[in-house]
Specification:
The protein has 312 residues and is α/β, with parallel strands linked by helices. It has ten helices and eleven strands. The chain has three domains: 3-94, Arc Repressor Mutant, subunit A, CATH 1.10.10.10; 100-167 and 273-310, 3-Layer(aba) Sandwich (D-Maltodextrin-Binding Protein, domain 2), CATH 3.40.190; 170-272, D-Maltodextrin-Binding Protein, domain 2. The strands form three sheets. Strands 3, 4, 5, 6, 9, 10 and 11 form a seven-stranded mixed sheet that branches. A two-stranded antiparallel sheet has the order 1-2. Strands 7-8 form a two-stranded parallel sheet.
C-alpha cells in the first residue's frame, strides 16, 4: 500500500486531529475543508463539537479567516506528533517498504543464517525494521503463539493448528562419539539401544534437539544416563569429543569435529527439520503486514540454500 493510502487510513482513525492541523495550516475554514476533502459545514460542525467535547476554545475567527487560540497553539505540536506517530504505525501495517518484522530464531541460526537473510533482504528494502530475539525452541514457539513475534526460524516444527510451517532444510541426526569409542569404527548405522548403558551429553530441556532426542529415546524405550546438559550444540559436541559421554546431534556440515566420529542412526525419526513458522491464516486477527509477508517469502526462497551450508 502506498503512502497516500496510509495517510487515508490515518485520517479515518483520527479525523478531528487532522481537522485541527488543517485549520492551523490554512487559517481558513473553506480552504481547510478543501484540503480535507469534506464540505465546509461539516468541518465547522466538527470543530464546534470538538471544542464542546473538550471544553476548550481551540479556534477563533479573525475576520474572514480563523486562527488557533493560545490553547490551540499549545496543543498543536502534540497533535502533529500524534499524527506523525500514527502515520508511522499505519505504515508498519500497510507498507512493505517501511514496516516492521518481529523475528525469533534459534541460537545456532544467529551466527550466519539470520545475518545472511537480513543482509540480502535489506539491500532491497533498507527501511524495513526488525525486532530480533534469539532464544531456544520452546521459548520461540511460545513467543510466536502469544503474538510477540511474526515469524520463527526454528526446529523442530510444531504440530499446532494455529501455526503454519515451511520446511527449509532437513538435517540427519547422528550419534556423536569420541574417536576412540568402541563403535567409532562400526562403519554402519547404529541404534541408540547399542549405547543404552552409557552416559549421554544432552542439551537442556526446551531446546529443539533435546526434544527430538527425547522422542527417539522414548521410542527406543531408553532412559539416558545424563552426564551433562549443555546450553548449545557446539558445547555438547565438544564434550562428546572429550569423552564425557555420547550425544545425539545434527550432522556437522563441515564434517565431524576433530576428536569425534558421527554415526548414522537407524532409529526412526532421526532427523531435524528446520523451517520458518508463522501464525496460520485466520488466527491472530487474520492479517499479515506486507513487510512480514515479503520477508517470509524471502526466507522461503533463500533459506533452503543458506541453511545446509551454515548450520550445525
Amino acid at each position: 500500500m502506498e503512502s497516500e493510502d496510509a495517510d487515508r487510513v490515518t485520517r479515518l482513525l483520527a479525523p478531528r486531529l487532522h481537522m485541527l492541523a488543517a485549520l492551523a495550516r490554512t487559517e481558513h475554514v473553506t480552504r481547510a475543508a478543501e484540503v480535507l476533502g469534506m464540505p465546509q459545514p461539516t468541518l465547522s460542525r466538527a470543530i464546534a463539537r470538538l471544542q464542546e467535547d473538550t471544553g476548550l476554545t481551540l479556534v477563533e475567527r479573525t475576520g474572514r479567516g480563523v486562527r488557533l487560540t493560545r490553547a490551540g497553539r499549545l496543543l498543536l505540536p502534540h497533535v502533529e506528533r500524534a499524527l506523525a506517530d500514527l502515520a508511522r504505525g499505519v505504515g508498519e501495517l500497510t507498507d512493505a517498504d517501511r514496516g516492521r518484522v518481529g523475528l525469533t530464531f534459534l541460537p545456532t541460526l544467529g551466527v550466519e543464517v539470520v545475518p545472511a537473510l537480513l543482509r540480502d533482504f535489506r539491500r532491497a528494502r533498507p527501511d524495513v525494521r526488525f525486532t530480533l530475539v534469539q532464544e531456544p525452541w520452546a521459548d520461540s514457539l511460545r513467543r510466536l503463539a502469544a503474538g510477540g513475534a511474526d515469524l520463527a526460524l526454528t526446529s523442530p516444527l510444531p504440530a499446532d493448528p494455529l501455526l503454519e510451517s515451511t520446511v527449509l532444510h532437513t538435517q540427519a541426526l547422528r550419534l556423536v562419539v569420541p574417536e576412540h569409542h568402541r563403535l567409532a569404527a562400526a562403519g554402519r548405522a547404529v541404534a541408540l539401544a547399542e549405547v543404552a548403558g552409557e552416559e549421554f551429553v544432552l542439551l537442556k530441556p526446551g531446546r529443539g534437539v533435546r526434544h527430538l532426542t527425547d522422542l527417539i529415546t522414548d521410542r527406543a524405550a531408553l532412559t539416558p544416563k545424563v552426564a551433562f546438559e549443555a546450553d548449545d550444540i557446539a558445547t555438547a559436541r565438544g564434550l562428546a569429543g572429550a569423552g564425557l559421554g555420547v550425544t545425539v546431534l545434527p550432522a556437522r556440515p563441515r564434517g565431524p569435529l576433530p576428536g569425534t566420529v558421527e554415526l548414522a542412526l537407524s532409529d526412526p525419526g532421526a532427523v531435524r527439520p528446520i523451517g520458518v513458522v508463522h501464525p496460520a491464516r485466520g488466527s491472530g486477527g487474520g492479517y499479515t503486514p506486507p513487510a512480514v509477508a515479503t520477508f517470509l517469502e524471502h526466507v522461503r526462497r533463500h533459506g533452503p540454500r543458506l541453511i545446509p551450508d551454515l548450520t550445525g
